[in-house]
Amino acid sequence: MLGKKVINLKQYFLVGLFVSAFFLALNTTTAYAEEQPIAFSHKLHTVQNGIACQYCHLYARRSFSSGVPPVSTCIGCHGPKEQKLVQPDSKEVNKMRTFWSDKEPIPWVKIHDVPDFVRFPHKEHINADSNRLLDDAGAGCDTKNAPRSLECKLAQFRTGGDQRCLACHGDVRQMEVITQVDENFGKMGWCMECHLQVKGAKERKRTGSTIAGWYHAKEMDKKREAAIGLVNEKGYHNPNMLDCYTCHY
Amino acid sequence: MKKGLSRRNLFKYVGAGSATAVVAGCENKPEKLIPMLVPPTDYEYTPQTAYQYMTTCRECDAACGMMVTTREHRAQKAEGNPNHPLNQGALCAKGQASLQTLYNPSRHAYPLADGKKIPWQEGLQQFSALTQTAAGAIAYLGKPAVGSEGDFLDEWLQAAGGGKRVDFELLSQNSQVEANQIAFNRADVPEYAFEKAGLILNFSADFLETWGNPVENARRFADMHAYQKGNKNKFVHISPHVSLTGAKADRWVVINPGTEGLVALAIAAVIQQENGSHTFLKAYLESYSPENVAEETGVSAEAIRGLAKEALEHGPLLAIGGGNVSATKQSVETLVAVNILNAVSGALDKTLRFYNQTAVKKSTHQDLLELISDLDAGKIKLLIIDDSNPVYALPPSMGFAEAIKKTFVVSLASQKSETTHEANLVLPALTAYESWGDAFPRSGVKSIQQPVMSAVNTFDAKAREDILINTVQSIDKTAFSGNSNYLDFLQDKWSKIQRELGDTRSFENFWISILENGGIYEKPKFARTALSRKVTAVKVSSPELVGQEGLTLLPTTSLLLGDGSGANKPWLQEVPNPMSQIVWDSWVEINPDTAQKLGINDRAIIEVKTPHGSVQATAYYHFGIHRDAIAIPMGQGHQHSGEVADGFGINVMQLLPGEFDNAGNLSFVGVQAELKLINEKSYTVNTDGNARQLGREIAAATTVEELAHPENHGSAHKRPTEFYPDRSETAGYYKPYRWGMTIDLDRCNGCSACVVACYAENNIPVVGKIRTAIGREMSWIRMERYIEGYGDDFETRFSPMLCQQCGNAGCETVCPVYATYHNPEGLNAMIYNRCVGTRYCSNNCAYKVRRFNWFNYEFPAPLDQQLNSTITTREVGVMEKCTFCVQRIKTAKYDAKDLSRDLEDGEVLTACQQTCPTKAITFGNLMDPESKVAKSALRETADKRDRQYEVLAELNYKPAITYLKKVNTREVLGHNSENHDSHQNSENHG
Question: Which terminus, N or C, of chain B has the lesser number of Cβ atoms within 10 Å?
Fold first, then answer.
């Protein structure tokens, strides 16, 4: 009997080792960043020089993809070496000029990535009507202590413009190196946090079993459907933002 | 207590071990974001957005208009150009698969000299030098010109110092043209106005497969033949063989091989007697009276008179002849006879109309013989061959393969083939997707072919015409008036067309409008035509093939592989032949009666031997073939056409003698074959489980008479009464959309274009022959084929089967992880990332439409560039199935939202619906009572139904797809299953 216990301990030790290794490997730092081919500073371009997000990421309101700016966009201001335009002698800018003169694209490293089975349309988010958010969504945002709280993200989304980009990507305008701020960026729960803050979303979620609520089912259904607010004031049906097919197809 | 490792502990260790392995394997490598250097300015560009370009399909010379969807400047989907008058938005299976011509891994990737890679510069220099030395002794062998390329090649040959141009097309309409010249003094192919006919008599032509423009034919035929308002016109197939076209016929009249002409004249004789037209034919036709021809044709005089009576009653008649099965040495005479029948019955200028034009003279197969003898005599110093494949397609007895060894062969082909294998110098050409061209397939139709994308980067190829221009200009700088590329040449031609049209816009504006519309479409001009008196000189006789030793060999065409050019396309190999349901193979169609006499069982390997060669293939029992004949489809048996084509099936052309009819066209029929049993078992793979419906009413049919009585409406199988309320009464469901579909089995002809379209749209992997054999094919929509009845009176039914998007689905309730569930819009959603691969759903699906990814299937480069980037490409371990093209629904909804409105009817087309030549599929919102689909589905009450039924309705799965019954004009054979006789074997197809 004693021998058996020892074996069991060994077993748990081994399993525990594996489990801890597993979690160690999974453990990612909250702010994820990678070394980029050029030390491009979003801060410098947006805050100091006042360039709007969609000046470079110009497809964000038109396409699923926001678009990585082509090298010609950089050259538009910085110019090729011989022209001596903006920052003619910067080491980092010259890296870009070398890519340009070699006719090579810049191999940026993707930081904000969603899995391949997710179809995320930038344009639908940029053009979304913030009136669809719950009336109190975004209230109580504490920018100082919890800038990445759900409330603050919703508040940013409501504000619109460049703020809306920041709602998901974090305050890119303060980043010297592009960084993924939210640990759970691109994970489903992280997306759903906001998708559930849409009017009627909670009502859309089916709850309870049909059998249990059978007696009142029809009555309940009527109430729920009224609360969902299927049709918007413009007279067409609101897109369903909770269906799996919204993102996964 | 047991010592050591118990089962439970084993799993603990294994589980923990694999967890670490997974962590090690999933090392999160960041992806790269590669921007463009300069965004394109010569065309509009938004990433992940579809752009459509109009062009022309060049898979066959029917030249349908095509609209290609590109994303990220990669062609991802081919559709018909909706503006084009011939195909009106539809495409056939081959047209859909033209994407795999573009991305085919077996394309030539670089120039080859004697099989060795050389740089382009060297290849071009070699070609120029050869052209210079061979001046006057050059031959160009290529596909018949349907556009400006004919003029171009003539000009080139002239500039290069002279030579001759020979056309090669295995399935040509030259005999037709010759017969029209004899009968009507018109060397042209007329318009066949199917929709105006009251009765179609088809003399062996496969007009729904390869004859003429099958897409246009299918549409016009369906307009004539489909059930409409209590009426249905008839189509009689008079032939020794039932092809896919014949399967759509209301009746099959079995005739002896090669006697189509005699039957046509006998019918004409009776009609002439009755209506007294064309009196000069009286004496001529009397010698072909039904009684005189009855014995030779194998059709009783009574039956012929019956057909004539029908033609007189239900006219106007349209008689169609042509195709392989009637191509004996007398095929011109046969076609003249069909022309006489058309003239006598008054079809001329009604259902059969000639254009006011003279057709371009095409060279014939006999001209090839001349070329071969020239080659043998050493008169040709340089032979240039385009993408056509004569080494494969011509009967070896013609000696083409040997003859070209005596000259220098330059191949300007894009695809690897038996011909390019023999070539001394291969200069890879671009495909139609990447190069300029045009086609004038019909009077008034001028269609442009523009590059829809830059050349596929894995292949270092150049446009064929540009190679030629480059070569000749290195000899003579002034050639082609200094035009440095084919585009300039084309624009010269089109500016002439513009002047002829009287168009006063600047050429630039004119050109842009051409590119936007895909061409110029004017109403054709017709010319009145009369039957020539000289036809009485044409003597039609029986080739007397029946009664000889052996069985008459009928080489048939397949709408998938055509003359063999489709064999290197994985989709066309993987999609089952709609008639036999066989994939990746050849087979020998044989009548069960004959086979049993010879002791050949179904699916046995048999040797087929003619005086010219022998092959071994699988016997396939087919009621639809004359008892003294066998049929072998063309297109397989390649040796040097790439991995997908090589080694599958056999090449029937090897059995032919290489004889010709009076038009110089190859005669396909006329050789007798001996059969010998080799092995009782074969490894032929077919996808149909059972050819019989066994009372399941999957593909249901009714008759016109039955439909006249409303009590017969609806299905024998009905939904049971249900206790639960319908989903439409539940909160959030079906508001405003419940996607649904109706499929009209009376319009469907089984052409399988929908199946290929689905492969293209939904990134469905091709699994190959062996995996298909163990049931792992991945098609989301399949063309089910069922056979009713036995013997000559059998009936074939087709039914496209796809996910029924059930309102009460079996799959949803058994999924342990909710990976499949009922979506608020009525879609049976399949969420790949939730799926853990239990396959319970597939087991519980009554329609067997779910497919499981047993492997990570490969899309060998560059086929992966075709993958639709708007959907997920599935990985190993997940289930997948038809989604009603949810990506198209989503895109349309986003577009509608931008316009602040809901979707309108007809805004979303599924890929299968879009390409259907006969518009058999209707898709839309069932909740909108005004939508087309809701009107044709008429689901609520039985009294509002006429042909509607649901497949397996008794299971109460509440499918969203309503089928409309096929309408027969005869008794529905499926109704009495007592009719069994000796053909038990044919029940076990599979």
Answer: N
